[in-house]
Amino acid sequence: MKTEELTYKGSTILVGVMEDEVEILTRQLENFEAYREEYSLIRSEKRKIEFLSARILLNQAAGCSVQVIYDANRKPYLVNKSLHISITHSKNYAAVMIHPEFPVGIDLENRTERVKEVSKRFLNESEQKLFSKETNTAKLEIAWSAKETLFKIIGHDVQDFAATLEILPFILNESGTLHVLHTNGSRIYELQYQQNEYFTLVYSVDKKIRL
Asked: 2-101 has which CATH code?
């Protein structure tokens, strides 16, 4: 699997292209036996590839074999809790993020203008006005991924994206920083984004700015 490594505030991020077949990925996952029972329940070929790819990337990022399980809210964590982790995948890309000390969140989405059709579901009125002047959907795509990223960090307290998370104005570049207000928690989160012609990637380490 072709991978790209990034670092951010003490975290390690690996982005992989999911090009290999299931048989190859199964051999690449050194600790496959730890997942055999869980893996046997997966029927979709696409889901098998996502499952295996994410765990291969986590092992690579951690530098050793680690095992992922899920809590009651389907949030992934390691059995030995040695690292904070986050996992994402979209079409033929997968990405993971790890940090030894702080919670992390990451979201990768393939580029699509369809985000405009559902923007009112995740943007409040102020945000809709902020983005209404944009000539393309680049900022909307970043906004969506930013809120998905924070959902992975904060949890169900931000399930209503429009009501609980507000994107603050930011300048669009190929990569940059943006800030998001968590209205319920009265906190501002700092996130990093990268965007190319294929995907939008947003990630954050849970070092909060208190209001």
From this structure: 3.90.470.20
